[in-house]
Amino acid sequence: MANKSNPEVPKAKGALDKFKFEVASELGVPLKDGYNGDLTSAQNGSVGGEMVRRMIKRQEEEMVDGQ
Predict the structure, then answer these.
(1) Which residue in 28, 3, 19, 11 sits closest to 58, CA to CA?
(2) For 10-45, how does the pLDDT look when each residue is reduced to its tens digit (9 = 90+)?
């Protein structure tokens, strides 16, 4: 079983981390480098959920533009 914290494309790790912090900042979630166990699951989930929504939207736009 793959480790969920490792990206499918290892070279993308830096960009994904930057994206995560941008989303957290926009949502008002006080995400910091390192341990974030003091955050609620709702806070962490909101960041992950928003990241997924934005990635899906971008992929959909690329699929439409590519036709």
Answers:
(1) 19
(2) 999 999 999 999 999 999 999 999 999 999 999 999
Q: Report whether 23 contacts 48 (CB < 8 A).
A: no
Concatenated DSSP letters of the chain: ---TTS-SSGGGHHHHHHHHHHHHHHHT----SS--TTS-HHHHHHHHHHHHHHHHHHHHHHHHHT-
Q: What is the pTM of this model?
A: 0.82
Residue identified by tokens 């609620």 is 40
| Cα–Cα distance for residue pair 50/41, rounded to 1 Å | 14
